[in-house]
Design brief:
homodimer; mainly alpha; Multidrug-efflux Transporter Regulator, Chain: A, Domain 2; two-stranded antiparallel sheet; 5 helices; flat; disordered C terminus; DNA-binding
Chain lengths: 126, 126
DNA sequence: GTAAACTATGAAGTATACTTTATAGCAAGA
DNA sequence: TCTTGCTATAAAGTATACTTCATAGTTTAC
């Protein structure tokens, strides 16, 4: 699969896909080169990039993703530790999301124009 | 309350608090100046900044927050529209989080070192 | 009253995640 | 064949969210 097809199927700019490769999160596993030097991706790249998109969308960095990729080279204990750490981060993010959502629902039910400020009367988890 | 106390209580650098003010998300409502020109914050600033932190942590931009603040000046219909839009964004983020979490749980249960790549065998929502 | 600590401003610097530009080779259809 | 379009690389540019620096006024503790 050539880069433009990947771009279309995963809905990312070509430049972004090349950038991910440069950053080391698209590896040989998903990518080889044709004789003309064009990139040729495996069909797995689509699912993989969807996971990458999900991770980036919820606040993981490219560096985080690199560390998850590199899990293959380290001990199972270390793997489990890193993965659990990431899951904890996700759960913290989920709490934040729920708080933000409740803040917004609160705004919907309040007469914002007259007396309430953004978030002014909301409770948040510290 | 002076800036250093706010910084300590909300656990943000002083520079960040001044930056938020510069970006227009800390308004007169929470801030006045003393005769010596020092910033003097109301106690409400703490709860407010916690909401700001939550929002930023889950992917909202400072610009998003500004638009939420400015809800006070616009019609209720427009307010409701913007708020519902933000809630939809949060719900999309929640889906992404759940996907990312399942990806990681999948990794925990797989023999990563031997055959599975990061995310390679996971399903994600398109 | 003076040194250390806190406050202020504006401007420049940094990190992350991309995007755009410039230049050039390769390919497919009329 | 020639033009249009896709591919390539390297380097510079952009946006967002801060942080650091340079400089200077203010306050507090001894």
């Amino acid at each position: 699969m050539k880069i433009s097809e990947v771009a279309k199927r995963i809905d990312l700019p070509i430049s972004t896909i090349r950038y991910y490769e440069k950053m080391g999160i698209i590896t040989e596993e998903y990518l080889l080169r044709e004789q003309n030097n064009y990139r040729n991706y495996t069909s797995d790249i689509i699912d993989y990039l969807q996971v990458v998109k999900n991770c980036l969308a919820v606040g993981f960095t490219i560096s985080d993703i690199k560390s998850m990729i590199s899990l293959k080279g380290i001990s199972k204990e270390e793997q489990a530790r890193i993965i659990k750490e990431k899951i904890a981060e996700i759960e913290a993010a989920q709490l934040n999301l729920e708080n933000a959502k409740q803040t917004l629902y609160g705004l919907l039910q309040t007469d914002i124009t007259c007396e309430s400020g953004f978030g002014k009367h909301d409770r948040t988890v510290s």
